[in-house]
Structures are given as structure tokens and as C-alpha cells.
Amino acid sequence: MVREISAGGVVVRHKDGEWWTAVIEPAGDSSTSSNSRKRAVSKSKPTLCLPKGLVDPGEKPLEAALREVREETGVTASPITKLADIKYMYVRTWGDNQRVFKIVSFYLLRYESGHIDQISEAMRIEVARASWIQLQDAAKMLAYKGEKQVAKQAFEYVIAHTEL
């Protein structure tokens, strides 16, 4: 069995009295398209995920999380705290169809700069769109169970830490 180590971030931003978080819609999701007419016609809701990706050789998980957030969302963030490690198995649907045991370290990150969805054209192969959603709604809107739990933890953290 193959092992993969990834890292990602829950980027938070306090704006207009609310906490917001950056999410992505993966490219290839049938409900997303760069063609806005198709998007308007589609009745299925988009798949929303937290930005994350593989830890490169020689890279620390936090470094990978910050890089992946920047690459996939267009925003720069700084670390607040580590939230959790999510572990799961999946079967690759491309290439070798191998079973993969994956660990994703998630970090709570504070928005610093940049514009959401201002990403490179090369990244559009992976990300159809990046956007801000209200953090309090993220646990309901994200597609995957582990990411829902991490978003809930992030919301609880920012509510408990009013100095943020």
C-alpha cells in the first residue's frame, strides 16, 4: 500500500464582523466550469474543499500547507496553530489504481494578503475556483467528513480566542 503525506490550511479572515475561510472547487468537478452559462444551468452544488496538497521532499508540513494555500487560492497566510491530522484510505482512479493510506495535517492560518482565486493558469488544472465562505457555515458546505470536522474545530478556536 502506498502512503501519502499532505498538508493543508483553514485560512481565516475577519471581515464585516464575520469569520470567513478560503475554499476551493476542484477542477474536473462536473458542477464547476469556467463557462458561466454552464454553471448557471447546473443544478448540482459544487464540491467545496480546503486547500491542501502533497508535502514535497525536504519540506515540512507547515511549509507545504502555506505553499498549497498560496498556489490553490491566491492568498498568503501565516500560521496560528495546528488543528489536526486526518487519516483515510482511497483508491487512485488514475494510473495504477493503487490503494493509498493518506495523512493530511491541517493548520489554522490567518489571511495576510492576496486576492482569492488569483491563481496561475497552470493551477487551473487542479482548481476551478477559489472563494471565501463564512467559517460558521463551512462544516455544512465542505464535501468531506474530515474537512468538515477541521472547519468546525477552526470555528470553535476563533470563537474561543477573541484576541485573534
What characteristics describe this protein?
164 residues; single chain; globular; alpha+beta; 41% strand; Nucleoside Triphosphate Pyrophosphohydrolase; 26% helix; 6-stranded mixed sheet
Q: How are the SSEs ordered, and which strands pair?
A:
Layout: E1 2-15, E2 18-26, H1 36-41, E3 52-54, H2 61-73, E4 75-91, E5 99-114, E6 127-134, H3 135-141, H4 145-160
Parallel strand pairs: 1-5
Antiparallel strand pairs: 1-2, 1-3, 2-6, 4-5
Care to describe what's here?
By secondary structure, the chain is α+β, with helices and mostly antiparallel strands. The protein has a single domain (2-160), classed as Nucleoside Triphosphate Pyrophosphohydrolase, CATH 3.90.79.10. It contains 4 helices and 6 strands; from the N terminus they run ββαβαβββαα. Strands 1, 2, 3, 4, 5 and 6 form a 6-stranded mixed beta sheet that branches. Strand 4 (75-91) and strand 5 (99-114) form a beta hairpin. Helix 3 packs antiparallel against helix 4 (145-160). The longest helix has 16 residues, at 145-160. The radius of gyration is 16 Å and the shape is globular. The N and C termini lie far apart (41 Å). 31% of the residues are buried.
SSE order = EEHEHEEEHH
- SS elements, strand count: 6
CATH architectural type: Alpha-Beta Complex
Question: What portion of the residues fall into strands of 2 or more residues?
Answer: 35-45%
CA gyration radius, whole angstroms: 16 Å
C-alpha end-to-end distance: 41 Å
